[in-house]
Amino acid sequence: MKKIVFVITLSFFLVGCSEISSSEPLTYNETSREVTTIEHLDSKMFTHHYMYDNMDRGNHDYFNKTLVVDPNYKEVSRGDVVLFEKDNGERSLSRIVALPEETIAIQKGQIYINNKKLDTFYGFAHRAGLDKKAYVELMENETNQKSVKEVFNYSMKNLTLSNEEYYLVSDDWFRGEMLVVRKDKIIGQVMGYKK
Asked: Which residues, other chains included, contact 46 with Cβ-Cβ below 8 Å and sequence gap of 6+?
């Protein structure tokens, strides 16, 4: 009888501990909000002039800029901005938020990785660099408010990536996209602006 009570008590303890660890956020502060300026290009780097505003965080980040791309991109990290090729052959930019074999979900505009809240500046919905509260207040009298609220309340069920897939999200959820991209479709890491 003592063994049964011990096993039941231990089971409750372990379940409680697993819930505590899954509720801890995944804090990721290694990625800078600032886009650096690159003066000298490595011989293998190339430039790409980008003309879409899906990465706008309030300063027209990346829009109408000549960017430096490093195709020798080996150490892929969460938060990296990458140039990739879409299925239609078009080139685009987005930020890596989930890595191979991770499970990503989105609940009311908040990204979760392996059931942990992604606690970083790109871990939740933005529009032109503003969070939901700030943007709704700014756009209080605008007609497209309903579609913007839908972006901030966007949810997606769990999606587990293969060992060759990444999940990319644009910094501006209203103007951008969210998609799975295979490793072989990533052209390179965007290092910054060309000076």
From this structure: 68, 69, 71, 188
How far is the CA of 84 from the CAs of 18, 26, 50, 93, 94, in angstroms?
37, 25, 12, 6, 8
Domain presence at residue 3: no
Give me the residue label for tokens 């032109």: 128
Cα–Cα dist 135/118, whole Å: 21
Structural domain range at position 105: 25-194
> Can you give the pLDDT of all 195 residues of the chain as single tens digits?
555 444 344 343 444 443 333 568 887 677 888 899 999 998 999 999 999 999 998 888 999 999 999 999 888 999 999 999 999 999 999 999 999 999 999 999 999 999 999 999 999 998 888 877 787 777 776 656 667 778 889 999 999 999 999 999 999 998 899 999 999 999 999 999 999
Query: Domain holding 62: CATH number?
Result: 2.10.109.10
Residue 51 corresponds to which tokens in the numbers above? 């003309």
Q: Is residue 14 a part of any domain in this protein?
A: no
- How far apart, in whole angstroms, are the C-alpha atoms of residue 38 and residue 151? 33
Residues in a beta bridge with 157: none
50 assigned to some structural domain: yes
Residue 76 C-alpha from the chain's centroid: 13
Specify the number of domains making up the chain: 1
